[in-house]
Amino acid sequence: MQFPKLHVAHLPTPFEPLDRLSARLGGPRIWMKRDDCTGLATGGNKTRKLEYLMADALHREADTVITVGAVQSNHARQTAAFAARLGLKCLVYLETRLRAGDPNYNSNGNMLLDRLFGAEIAIVPAGADADALMAEADQRCREAGSTPYVIPTGGSTPVGALGYVQAAGELYRQVADLKLNVDEVVLATGSAGTQAGLLVGFRSRAFRAPVWGVSVGKAGDVLEAAVLKLALSTADLVGLGEDIGPDKVAVSSDYVGEGYGKPTAGAIEAVRLLAQTEGILLDPVYTGKAMAGLIDRIRGGHYRSGQNIVFWHTGGGAGLFAYVDDFAVPDGEGARATRLADARVPGAI
Ligand SMILES: *Cc1c(COP(=O)(O)O)cnc(C)c1O
What we know:
Blueprint: E1 15-17, H1 19-25, E2 29-34, H2 46-59, E3 64-70, H3 74-86, E4 89-96, H4 103-107, H5 109-116, E5 120-125, H6 130-143, E6 148-151, H7 158-177, E7 184-189, H8 193-203, E8 211-215, H9 220-237, E9 250-252, H10 265-278, H11 287-299, E10 308-313, H12 331-343
Parallel strand pairs: 2-10, 3-4, 3-6, 4-5, 7-8, 7-10, 8-9
Antiparallel strand pairs: 1-2
Bound molecules: pyridoxal-5'-phosphate (PLP).
Residues 44-45, 74-75, 154, 156, 188-195, 283, 286-287, 314-316 line the site of pyridoxal-5'-phosphate.
């Protein structure tokens, strides 16, 4: 692929078996592709997309990037960090979709980091037309003599999806080195770029494992259409031809719960389980819901033992700090912590 790219991510990200989790769940062997370790500002999947998007921005001589997301957007945080690293100005529109009165949600987690990276933050009400706002900002910047570059929601354009076309090749090599037969790839899907890029990348390498997207907000059929559309335009961009059919695109909205950004019991359980069996952080908005989907499939007997399932960790750990109350320690655990503290001999450690 000959597309401009900036090399900022720490690649390849690790590919690891989660044997304590697999043993706990008693099903297939679960592996994890650690894109929480992409390295930019606590990592996550947007870093790979931004390597191409930001290169495109520099190619067009941009001095300002403009993007959009929810208040706790990981995409906005990674864009703000990337912009700081390149010395670009960054303007982010953040939609207050939920938890308007919650101080952690509105100033901790990704929001704290956006401010730290020096992004200009414009809070807009839910349902605002983000594309129109960004187009207006683009216009204003140009009139003021600067050169802006607009990045749509989640960086999910064909150029952004290139990051996951390339990531598919990275996983393909890691799997080949281990002589591993992968039976399914599971990931959280929001704005479709990650799943679309992976489908194109796997397709170009005849990687046969199905990809199962777990929606974090939108209806499954809406997201399937979005993934397919973006996969086709991405395939076009890389010159692959249009041979990705709807049969390759699967997204379930069974684990969304009440909506985007609203934790479910399954997501909270998944975050705790990964923390306590593997020492790995998921988040309640994206990866927790995707892992809840995988756990549900395992418990429902969907897989055979001996199969290998890859969970693609897309990051999001910074968002945990916005959801402090959702992880309030149940009485039993608190009592245990107190007993351990009491048992400590003063001065012994
Ligand atoms: C953005 C995001 C996703 C969704 O990726 P898309 O490419 O938008 O579908 C998943 N997980 C995390 C942590 C994210 O920030």
